[in-house]
Amino acid sequence: MEMKPENQVLLVEDNPDDVELTRESFRRTDRRLNLSHVGNGIECLKFLRKTEGYEDAPTPDLILLDLNMPIMDGREVLRALADDDQLKRHRVVVLTTSSSNTDLLVCHSFGCNAYVVKPVDVHEFQVIVNSICDFWFDAAMAPEIP
After folding, report:
1. Number of folded domains in the chain?
2. Rounded Cα distance, 84 and 51, in Å
3. Do 129 and 118 touch, CB atoms closer than 8 A?
4. Does residue 144 carry a pLDDT above 80?
5. Euclidean distance between CA atoms 99 and 104, whole angstroms
6. Is 18 within a domain?
7. Is residue 1 part of a domain?
8. For tag attachment on the chain, is the N or C end more exposed, with fewer CB atoms within 10 Å?
9. What pLDDT is attached to residue 5?
10. CATH number of the domain bearing residue 46
């Protein structure tokens, strides 16, 4: 039986509880994946550009991006990605507590691929993570990113 390749996920999240919940939820999937984490938008861009301590960072197959973070928030990250010909090819799922239609419109205007409101319930969060994996790693095709 052929092993599926390991998927690379970059979680951009400042809340330690949400980071741990996301790590645990991905551990509970049947996926081979590597979950990398950065705590703000500036670190996200360094990671994606492979600069300033992230030279050996894996290229993510999927970015899970929180909106409300210090230093550089998710909206600013999306804007930076949209303005960068190399980085705008990344698949980005905004994973946030905000159900604001304004946030949804802004995120889509800057090219996010999906917008998901974080459920409060741990079991519902697991269902969301499973759905993200099923769609983005099984159903959706992605461009190759060097």
Report:
1. 1
2. 15
3. no
4. no
5. 8
6. yes
7. no
8. N
9. 63
10. 3.40.50.2300
